Amino acid sequence: MSVRTTLPLGFADLEPFVEQWAGATVDARMYARASADMAGIRRFYEVAVARGAEALEYCAQFPLDAMPDDAALLFRLMLGLAQASIAVEIHGQPRAPGTPWPNSITLQRGPSPFG
Amino acid sequence: MAQDATGAAATNFTRGIGLHTKPVPLEPYRSASFFAAERDRVFARAWLMLARVEELPAPGDYVVKSIPTNGVSVILSHAKDGRIRGFYNSCSHRGSEVVAGPRGNAARFTCPYHSWTYANDGRLVGIPDEPSFFAVDKANCGLTPIATETWEGWIFVNLQRRPEVSLAMFLGPFAVHLAGLKYQAASTPVVLTADLDANWKVVMDAFVETYHIPVIHPKTIGTTFSSKMNPFARLLDARKLGIHQAVSMYGNPEYVANPDNRVEALAYSAAATGSVIAAATTEGARAFLEHPSVNPTGSGTWSMDVNHLFPHTHIDCGPGGFWTHQFWPTSPNTCRYEVRFYVPQAQNVYERFQQELYVGRVAEIVLEDLNNVARTQRGIDTGGKDFMQIQDSEIGIRHTMEQLMKWVDADTVAEAMA
User: Fold this and answer.
1) Which of B162, B188, B211 is the last residue of a domain?
2) Contact A85 B357 (CB under 8 A)
3) Among A41, B169, B193, B298, which one has the highest count of C-beta atoms within 10 angstroms of its own C-beta?
């Protein structure tokens, strides 16, 4: 049986979204949102936003730069939720209306950690 | 101040600083010969900001930077004596690029081609199989220096072998305007780059006026920059700083986070916020905000200032700190764009979560602009229009064009700056 990092106990309902939304860098999470379809973004958003307060509270127990692996993965998923919210709460579509995809914008360096 | 038919206060920036009010030519936005003149007479003669000292804080630190307009790769090196020097990234042997970059720490640089070796102060210290050469004058075969000077943490280079003017003379009143500013979070920039299908001035112009914001960015930042009192987002202030300039932009005091935005509410549940441009607030931010040239009119309806450093750099200040834009010409209708948002190191998960939202929004704003500038360039390239009609709050565009024309025409830098 393969052992891989999963989410902390009690957040199993978010597990199906990890692969797509918990990217390691801002650029990866932004790419996940920009290249996703709106129905998929909404599915993730609805489930994750309902657990958002609880998840952030769980992660806040640890220092930002020294989280256990499972908490770090949960936090990266929450950062993915921040990206998803840009589609749901601002545009009503994955990217700003009428803008090109793919495009030449590259995030060379994001905020740390998980940048 | 008197109001006019739009309900906003009337402005008098353009005549106030003595600029003409005629239409502004479009040929410089599409002409190959004007592009060549900008490259050779502006970018090859002006002081160009390349880095901040926080990028190479320790002796031995170096960064490799590009001046894409002139095809120059620059090594900026912090040697033991504490000086930061600039060098052309080219070997004395057969010209090869010496350092790959983008950054590192090294006492010596070794060319990857034949291992010629240089100290990080530029001296040539090693030639493999030296006896086979013909009395190489090693003292004159170091890395070729580029004039490099630092002002308040900003590192500038000048491609003239002997710059006609010092950095202090070049900056002039700009240095006075921002003297002593306490840059916050200067070691932790978020860096975004894009290669854009537009003349560099098309892109730069979009960042020096807010007239377009309610139209191009209605959902991302439109309501931050305009309101019923100032529906067209007229400027608060504009001043000429020699060849440089500063404009101060209106901000909507009524903007509040939309409570229906559940993720935004999660991020800001504990903190009050005025503008989505503000990524974080800290104690140090207070000293920054108290600088007389940050929100220079002391307006209660302020969003940000653009400090335009001629020819192609903006140092912007807002409630949450500072950020820079650079617009490098690469052809008559393409440019390299780089934005650096200096955001504080997050102290907890909530701050980091806010930053993710902030960076995500910023990238969307850039994306909206990217689309807009390509459309603008296509329109300009039709050749149907020879002039732009420029209004009072677009003064930055008019001022920069006036300066560029002088630099392109002038045979000496002193004449260009007169």
Assistant:
1) B162
2) yes
3) A41
